[in-house]
Amino acid sequence: MLYIIADYEKDHKTASKPAGSYEWWYFDAVSDDGNTAMVMIFYEGIPFSPAYNRMIKNGAGNEAHPEAHPAVSISVYHHGIPVYYSLTEYRKKDASLESEPLVVSIGGHQFSQQMKNNKLSYQLTLREQLPDGDSIEADLNFTGSPVSKSLLEEGEGDDHVWNLVQPSATVYGHLKISGYRNYELPFSGSGYHDHNYGEEPLKHAFRDWYWGRVHFPEATLVYYIMSSPSGKQYRAWLIDRENQNVVTGFSSIYTDEPQLSRFGLRPCRRLKLQSAEIKADIYHSRPVDNGPFYIRYLCDAVLHVPEWGLQKQTGISEYIYPGRIDRPVFRPMIHMRYRYANAKPHWVQKSPRLYRWTW
Question: Is 273 in contact with 279 (CB distance < 8 Å)?
Answer without folding.
Answer: yes
